[in-house]
Amino acid sequence: MATSFTRMDESTAEQWAVIGAETMRNQPRVAEQFLTMLRQLEGITDGFATNQLVHALQTATLAEKAGAAPDMIFAALCHDVGKVVSVFNHPAIAAEMIRPYVSEDVYHVIRVHQDFQGKHYYHHFGKDPDAREQYRAEPWYDLAARFADEWDQLAFDPDAETYPLEHFEPLVRELTAVPRSM
């Protein structure tokens, strides 16, 4: 059912109730879009030993095996989906995409994960490998360090244990079914 307003400033609460109900009815498309973008990562290698889908799956596998919270596992899986659009600002893209479905701490972990990864490679580009230190006082600092050091930077091994995307599909569908926040 479509509403009839042509300007938001002329809309009614009843019309917004229709829009809200339609939005929630169509919410399963969010999971499908995440899964599609994850599959698109398979075509991106950019010189790494694995394609970016394998990297994402390995990162999520490591997070799950370490007992991470479900939203952190989801974030680990989706942390690089922004690379489908742009490698250079992929953390910000991915973080905003997952934000309605994860805790505020997990959102920040993904938003700044590249600076935390920088410990392992920024020096090769003449950048500060201690870029993560600017976040030292943040409550999510330790989680971001764990994500970068124990899961993300280790997940480029073609021979490593890697759960398939199908393993994570129920989690993607569950967490994106209803946003935590808007």
Structural key phrases:
182 residues, globular, Hypothetical protein af1432, mainly alpha
Architecture overview:
The protein has 182 residues and is mainly α. The protein has one domain (12-177): Hypothetical protein af1432 (Orthogonal Bundle). Helix content is 52%, strand content 0%. Helix 3 (52-65) packs antiparallel against helix 4 (70-78). The model has no long low-confidence stretch (mean pLDDT 95).
Short précis:
With 182 residues, the chain is mainly α. It contains nine helices and no strands.
**What is the radius of gyration computed over CA atoms, rounded to a whole number of angstroms?**
18 Å
- The pLDDT mean sits at 95
What is the CATH C level class, in words? Mainly Alpha
Q: How many alpha or pi helices?
A: 9
Low-confidence stretches: none
Decide which structural class fits the backbone.
Answer: mainly alpha
User: How is the main sheet built?
Assistant: none
Count of extended strands: 0
Tell me the number of structural domains.
Answer: 1
Helix content: 40-55%
